[in-house]
Amino acid sequence: MQRTANLIGKAWKNCNKAPKGVQEIFQVLLAEMIIGGPIRNRWPNYGKITGKKIVITATSKKEDQLM
Fold this sequence. Notes:
mainly alpha
């Protein structure tokens, strides 16, 4: 299965500003995620977040007045 990784502009800019060693580490991590998928079970200190699901909703003042 072919995977792709899309970086938002801010992440791309910050990576380009980082020292060369940091850029190389980032490229290795990005390649590992592309090859192995987004779930990284073998990384140290990695674990799925468990617990209650938090749902945040936002309404505008206009919507509040209509309710």
